[in-house]
Design brief:
The protein is built from four helices and four strands, in the order H-H-E-E-H-E-E-H. With 143 residues, the chain is mostly helical.
Length: 143
């Protein structure tokens, strides 16, 4: 885990103004949901977005202690952010705790779950019998 000073050293290595001149960055959706997204960017755009994240990481502790401010805003309306992007990251909301994943409970089959195969089998038997009876009836009409 990097300290504020170490993060600042990394941030200082970037020439933000020069990156902004060359950068293009966008987040796009290729399917129906937000889980079907991708980033389209050049190297400078990726570096600039990473720089924004590094600045957010550096400011996280201060924001968590601040009672007035609870988010770190991004400058998403700048020229380096692709205006045709589907998703615009507007801010970071720092949190203290790691996400607690819910344990997967084992599925217990119900009585209805156990009846489904028998019901499908019964429908299949009725269908086969109907086809046989219909076929025999057609043969009786013809002969």
């Amino acid at each position: 885990m990097l300290t504020k000073e170490e993060l600042q050293k990394i941030i200082d290595q970037f020439d933000e103004e020069e990156l902004k001149k060359l950068a293009i960055f966008g987040i796009y959706q290729y399917g129906g949901g937000s889980d079907e997204s991708f980033v389209r960017a050049n190297k400078e755009g990726l570096e600039l977005f990473a720089l924004q994240l590094l600045k957010s990481a550096k400011d996280t502790e201060a924001i968590l202690l601040d009672e007035e401010k609870s988010i770190i805003t991004f400058n998403y309306d700048e020229d380096w952010v692709d205006e045709n992007s589907d998703t615009f990251v507007q801010y970071v909301e720092p949190i203290v705790d790691k996400q607690q994943l819910k344990s997967m409970s084992e599925y217990k089959s119900t009585f209805a779950d156990k009846l489904i195969p028998y019901g499908c089998g019964l429908v299949l038997i009725i269908l086969v019998l109907s086809v046989v009876v219909g076929f025999v009836t057609i043969l009786d009409w013809l002969f």
